[in-house]
Amino acid sequence: MAIIKSPVFKDISEAEISEMTSAGFLRARKFRKKAIIYHVTDIVHEIGIVASGQVTIEYIDMWGNKAIMSNIAPGQVFAETYALSGEPLMVDAVASETSVVLFLNIRKLMDSQPENVHYKDTILNNLLHISIQKNLTLSNRIFCTSPKTIRDRLLIYLSNESRKAGCEEFSIPFDRQQLADYLNVDRTALSKELGKMRGDGLIEFRKNVFHLLSIC
Asked: Does pTM top 0.90 for this prediction?
């Protein structure tokens, strides 16, 4: 299995990737668009690593209301907290397009003897850094969904995306429905507010490409 660019495999060689595959620590699987990779209440022992495509982490409450918690791009990981803790999933992991996912069996890796698996500490250290970054991302989402108005939520989200891109023009990883789910608002109301913001001279946009004209 060829190595992919992922923080999980930082300082891991091609040979070590092959060792993981041969030892049964690592496997790959392809998913069609909208396929559920992990379902709420599943107990998992494998961390998902997106090799290609895109995965969304979704929360659906008892009344069927859906919120997108995060978008997982190639190289990024998901379900690491659940795989390490053994707790049932509280979310769904869904392929938002045709995707290839690598599964790293972290439980099996942790149970292995370190003298026989020399890359074990490197993997665990990489996962620690990933968890820290995930906490920062979660904090950002809390900032985005805290304001009461849709405009304020959009301003915070788009401002953060602009800062990450280092440019006033940038693309976001969501379509309109996904953005509405991420911000926990109604799609129609979101589209209406985007139109108002464009009319007020705050933004320009085409599909998922935005240009910030002013922030107030």
From this structure: no
